[in-house]
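FYI - complex with protoporphyrin IX containing FE, inputs then prediction.
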Amino acid sequence: MVAADTTPPRSLAVPLAGFAVGAVVALLVGVFGKVHDPTLAGTTTLGFRTVIDMKVVLSVVVGVLAVLQAIGALWLYGKLGAGAPPWLGTAHRVSGTVALLLTLVIAYHCLWALGLETGRFADGEPVPARTVVHGVLGCAVLGTIVVKVVAVRSRRAPGWFLPVAGGLLFTLLVSAVLTSAVWYIGTHGWPGAGGYG
Ligand code: HEM
């Protein structure tokens, strides 16, 4: 007797819905970042000297985890030649969850204490292009996290959806870290080494 195929039919509606919801989330985060009055009340340094120090260090951890996630995904998809070890799937899921939670902590602090800065600061000085780009990337990261979670959870998504969602999240996350933590360390030095903030 041939076993019944229990795989549900693939549907393009899943990625379309995922991208639509992700875009709405990114937009709403951006609107919140513009209308909310930035405040340090309700933030934490997690024991670091300042909130910025905490974000820079956690962002470096997130950047390293993102690179490991990308390598792990390529390995799991058999793109690195040698077969993936049996523990890799679990390790990929655990470190991905840690990266996601750290990203949410960092993004909350950016949004709550700084907001989405565009145009001019209150003193009339123009907001630097890097800051604008970083803020927009940050909003896109949060929207893409939604897309990625939909891609991971759905059994009806076409096979291309998960690698595309993962690749997009990796690209945006690394760009957000490069335009913030990496810029900060390049300009002010490692946190605690006389930096500002
Ligand atoms: C939710 C959307 C986000 C918004 C609106 C946002 C906004 C901002 C703003 C306005 C700054 C100050 C930039 C400056 O001083 O010129 C900042 C700093 C920072 N952000 Fe974000 N951000 C977001 C998400 C993220 C994410 C996802 C990460 C990393 C995973 C991140 C990491 C950092 C770090 C490390 C700093 C401190 C270094 C710096 O001053 O650039 N942010 N963010």
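The pocket of protoporphyrin IX containing FE is lined by residues 29, 33, 52, 55-56, 59, 62, 103, 106-107, 110-111, 114, 116-117, 131, 134-135, 138-139, 141-142, 176-177, 180-181, 183-184 (CB under 6 Å). The helical segments are 13-35, 51-76, 88-113, 129-153, 161-188.
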